[in-house]
Write a structure and sequence with these properties.
12 strands, Arc Repressor Mutant, subunit A, about 300 residues, alpha/beta, D-Maltodextrin-Binding Protein, domain 2
């Protein structure tokens, strides 16, 4: 059998290859593609067999491209981009207006992908975004102020959008005596985020002093990063210069937060479906960092890949 006869490429194989290359890990690639890890592994094996080359080196911490893999990556990305463009030529462009509610702790990566890239894909669509406390979004949906929104908690009959860890967070240079009350920075806006830190500290009888209050995650992060206090942040809100508090602080374990998407009954179905798809893909591509430095490195890697392609 000749090499030409052996070739049996399809978009699924190329998508699996590109996802692994960009994520650097089989599990993350499977999550991005919404497939099982074994299914993605089989697709990679089929592609390597079809091409007769090894595309990845496997390591304890993930997978890196071989020389042949580096040759294939820009070609595969170009093929998938051309196919997407070909499909879009015959799609009816989305027109109209959509009003979206997004939690205010979603960082610039979320906004860049959802707003900038979505806007480029649908230039005839007018997107209005409301960023703020997500606990108020269900009422905004009911009153007709929003068409689609990310809200806290599960929604009956719907698959959750994500479950996000929460952490006690402090500045990299923060220090306090473990035997003294912990200085606390609180989000002050009358929702779950305001009550949760104090409630959990009370359960373990950990003494604290409120050193800072703010209505915004942005100001809360500034106070934490400046070393004024310890605070509670969702994982996506962590930034460079912060770390998860060490065990010596004797702080209680915190619950994760489940979020869901809700859509107004009279919202345009095609537009809200496109927004929902963009949000889900974006959250899959921005996995929770174990630290702010990990997130920063991942951003640099994505930028390098974009330039290379």
């Amino acid at each position: 059998m000749t090499k030409i006869e052996r070739l049996s490429l399809n978009t699924d194989l190329l998508k699996a290859f590109v996802a692994i290359a960009e994520q650097g890990h089989l599990t993350l690639a499977a999550d991005r593609l919404n497939r099982t890890q074994s299914a993605v592994s089989v697709q990679l094996r089929k592609l390597e067999t079809a091409l007769g080359v090894k595309l990845f080196e496997r390591h304890a911490k993930g997978m890196t491209l071989t020389t042949d893999g580096e040759k294939l990556l820009p070609v595969a990305q170009s093929i998938l981009s051309d196919l997407h463009h070909a499909q879009s030529l015959f799609e009816q462009p989305l027109r109209g207006k959509v009003r979206v509610g997004i939690p205010d702790h979603y960082d610039d990566v979320i906004f860049e992908r959802v707003l900038s890239e979505f806007g480029k894909s649908y230039p005839m669509l007018d997107v209005f975004v409301r960023s703020g406390c997500s606990s108020g979004f269900p009422a905004a949906i009911d009153s007709g102020q929003l068409d689609i929104a990310v809200v806290p908690g599960p929604v009956d009959g719907e698959e959750p959008l994500e479950t996000e860890p929460t952490h006690w967070v402090e500045a990299d240079t923060f220090y306090c005596d473990p035997d003294t009350p912990v200085p606390l920075a609180l989000l002050d806006r009358g929702c779950w985020w305001s009550q949760m830190p104090i409630g959990h500290l009370a359960k373990v009888q950990r003494a604290y002093n409120v050193a800072f209050k703010s209505e915004s995650f942005s100001n809360l992060r500034c106070a934490i990063r400046a070393g004024l206090a310890v605070g509670v942040l969702p994982a996506r809100a962590m930034q460079e210069g912060m770390r998860i508090c060490p065990a010596e602080r004797r702080l209680p374990e915190l619950p994760a937060v489940t979020r869901s998407l809700i859509v107004a009954d009279d919202a345009p179905a095609d537009i809200t479906a496109a927004i929902a798809s963009a949000l889900k893909e974006c959250l899959q591509l921005t996995a929770f960092p174990s630290s702010a430095s990990t997130r920063n490195q991942r951003r640099q890697n994505r930028s390098s890949q974009s330039v290379a392609s």
